[in-house]
Amino acid sequence: HDLWENGRLECFVQLTLWNDLAANTLAELDENPQNVWQPTFVEPYLRYFIVSHMKVTDRWPALNSFIEQQDGAHRDLLEQQFSPELALMSITRDDLDRARFYVLKSFQQFLSRWTSLHPLANAARHQALQPLQKVVEMEEFLSFVSDGRNFESLEPVRTLTSNLRARWPSPKLDSVLVWDNVVSNRSVLFSKLSERFELYT
Questions:
Q1: C-alpha distances in angstroms, 66 versus 69, 70, 138, 168?
Q2: Is the peptide bond before 44 cis (omega within 30 degrees of 0)?
């Protein structure tokens, strides 16, 4: 039964049906996100809960509430496994200093994992590289918004978007999930850029 249930939830992931994944994950947790910390639920429901709520804007308040309630070992686990997601959530809340902390942590975790991979482990190295693009783009966003001169005209943002247009995942080597992650992250970043421009105009 557990194997079938986990397979069903993984199908939601592969189909990028994030709202369905969130609803079904909560149903497995008896509608209480804190139940995810039960030993039999942490894997795989913690990942399903974080990822699905991150993808659905209406679920951000619930995700923020869940994150803010965590401390100690639970907080450490979140930072260890979901630093890019925590960085993006911090950006949505305009907590840019915290976002920078999580972006730096994401880079450190990537380097730690990368150095442990065998040079000939091509599949593992490619998989390790896949989350890196969204982290790099969050770092670029944070650097961009830290300089108010970038909002004095449209030229800087045109340069930024031009650079992004030239940087996409591979249509042959990368999955739909990788594309979805890049596109959804950029959607959030451009939304926050739009808000910044409204403040400066």
A1: 5, 7, 22, 32
A2: yes
85: its two tokens: 């997601």
- Cβ 60 vs Cβ 53: under 8 Å: yes
1-10, 96-105, 176-185: the lowest-pLDDT one: 1-10
The number of beta carbons lying within 10 Å of the beta carbon of residue 184 is 17
Tell me how far CA of residue 190 lies from CA of 32, 47, 110, 157, 185, in angstroms.
32, 25, 25, 10, 9
Q: Residue 110, Cα to own-chain centre: how many angstroms?
A: 14
The predicted pLDDT at position 85 comes to 95
> What 8-state DSSP symbol labels residue 57?
G
Q: Please return the burial class of 95, using the count of CB atoms within 10 Å of its CB with bins 0-12, 13-18 and 19+.
A: middle
Contact 138, 185 (CB under 8 A): yes
Tokens of 102: 């999580």
**How many whole angstroms from its chain centre is CA 106?**
11
pLDDT digits (tens, 9 = 90+) for 17-74: 999 999 999 999 999 999 999 998 998 899 999 999 999 999 999 999 999 999 999 9
Cα–Cα nearest to 84, from 41, 33, 133, 145: 133
